[in-house]
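seq as requested:
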Amino acid sequence: MAAITIRNIDDELKTRLRLQAAQHGCSMEQEVRSILLRALTAKPTPPAFAQRIQSRFAGLELDELPIPERQATRTAPELG
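struct tokens:
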């Protein structure tokens, strides 16, 4: 197994890591391993709905679509 050294960690961050490790009943080293494992094996979240729609129609030149002329409105039927 490989080993890494992380320098210049903020004191507050180290304290929070120590407390979180204690809550999980493990060492700080094990807590860091767990955090790294979760972060690097997490599935990426799918893009939001609007982003998916935008990417689907990105190649189309929607600004160039012709706008049809308006038609005369129909008259309402007479009741009576």
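The helical segments are 11-23, 28-41, 49-56.
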